[in-house]
Amino acid sequence: NPSDIEDVKNIPIKLKVNKEINFHLDYPLPVRKAFSFFIKNYLRTEKKITRFQKKSLERSANFEKRYWTIDKINFVERLGKEKFDLIIANDIDTLPLALRISGGKSKVILDSHEYHPRQCENDSEWVKYTQKYTEYLCREYMSKADLVFAVSEGIADEFRKNYNVDPLLLTNATEHNNLSPGKVNEEHIKIIHHGSAKESRNLEIILEMMKFTDSRFTLDLMLIPTHRDYYNELLIKYSSEEKIKFTEPVRTKDIPGFINRYDIGIFLLPPVNFNYEYALPNKFFEFIQGRLCIAIGPSAEMEKYVKKYELGIISEDFTPEKMAEKLNSLTAKEIFRYKENSDKYSKELSAEKNLELIRSKAEELLCSQEIITEDQR
Fold first, then answer.
1. 191 pairs with which residues across the strands?
2. Terminus of the chain with fewer CB atoms < 10 Å: N or C?
3. Do 251 and 313 share a domain, yes or no?
4. Domain ranges, residue 100
5. What is the pLDDT, as a whole number, of residue 139?
């Protein structure tokens, strides 16, 4: 906690410029109108200039200048006066800020949820304007963190190879839920997919898959309309399909309990970028806590868990036909056995195990007497 501030969870710092423009209402009407026209257009032009300057800064090749915006400088001025024992930087874009606030007085952990330099490599604009900037942040700052976490072994290995760090695995596991696997109705097998509606996830694959599954199967989608136009396109195209239903999203903490009524959790994620190839997402662990049989494509990291713990099925590829083929071959008895395995390993694959790791590593750092100044870093 900060030294003299109690119960602080978040310190919002907002910059706002208030402009008040007054002129005498007794001026002649033409003067008032002319003045009003000038002011409105002046402010409109100023906004356009500000947007242009912001866009230019976001694409600047001077990466330090690009990073240290007025907002971040303000954070450092405000929080740099405080004494923190430990600062956790959530992904690479907060690490330089965390290190500057620390000033060598605090230990710093980087919690990395992506392999940042290839996060959106399927987006040509991101590659053109952001990739080198992200590579710079990783190159300049990652090794200065006292500890780095990564969400999958594939991502951790890539960081080791390129940035002189040795990340520890900290999965996206959710907290343990005290649930039991539900019985499977062999005449009605219920499939669920939940998550963000993003074009890059190619959700059409699992929707098209339903054309090739037998009559036992239905699919519910519980989507957050992250990309509203894409979400609407899916609704228009598939909501009238007899075997498909769109359902309203629930709060994150309620997901395992909600999906417990289903039999199979499905996620087909074509590897359109490095992070998708080595993804080990929240929903995978939510399927486990929901005590579901899991159906995935040949995604490297998820596949390891499905095989090791016998949690479900793995399609030969990411096509609708191949996944439907796998599903059609399942019996109700096999599905229930996979659901029982999710139940069996639900504690081992929960967030509680992650918390134990975080606590132990944080204690190690805090017990260390060596304090390193930012310059020495």
1. 219, 264
2. N
3. yes
4. 63-173+353-367
5. 97
Q: Which residue has the tokens 């990340």?
A: 167
- Band (pLDDT 50/70/90 cuts) for residue 49 is low
Q: Which two tokens stand for residue 151?
A: 């969400």
Q: What is the b/e burial string over 310-344, where b = at least 16 CB atoms within 10 angstroms of the residue's CB?
A: ebbbbbeebbbebbbebbeebebeebbebbebbbb
Q: pLDDT of 181-191, one tens digit each?
A: 999 999 999 99
For residue 184, give the nearest of 256, 264, 296 by alpha carbon: 264
Q: Which residues contact 326 (CB under 8 A, 6 or more apart)?
A: 295, 313, 314, 315, 316
Where does the chain have alpha helices with state H?
29-58, 63-67, 70-79, 95-102, 124-129, 131-141, 153-163, 204-209, 228-238, 255-259, 274-277, 282-289, 300-309, 320-328, 332-344, 351-367
End-to-end CA distance of the chain: 23
Q: With CA atoms as reference, report the closest residue to 188 among 243, 111, 144, 252.
A: 243
Q: Which two tokens stand for residue 283?
A: 């929903």
What is the rounded distance in angstroms from the CA atom of residue 303 to the CA atom of residue 309?
Answer: 10
Q: Is 263 domain-assigned? A: yes
Contact by Cβ (8 Å): 103, 376: no
110 and 146: one domain?
Answer: yes
Calpha distance 57→22 (Å, rounded): 33
- Helix (H, G, I), strand (E, B), or coil: what is residue 278? coil
What are residue 312's DSSP bridge partners? 294
Token digits of residue 211: 């054309």
State the Cα–Cα distance between residues 121 and 138, nearest whole angstrom.
16
Are the beta carbons of 343 and 181 closer than 8 angstroms? yes
The verdict on 162 and 202 lying in the same domain is: no
By the 10 Å C-beta count (0-12 exposed, 13-18 middle, 19+ buried), 295 is classed as buried
Please provide residue 245's backbone torsions phi and psi, each rounded to the nearest 5 degrees.
-140, 140
Predicted confidence band at 57 (pLDDT cuts at 50, 70, 90)? low
Number of domains into which the chain is organized: 3
Name which of 334, 318, 310 is nearest 271 in CA terms: 318
Q: Are residues 230 and 340 in the same domain?
A: yes
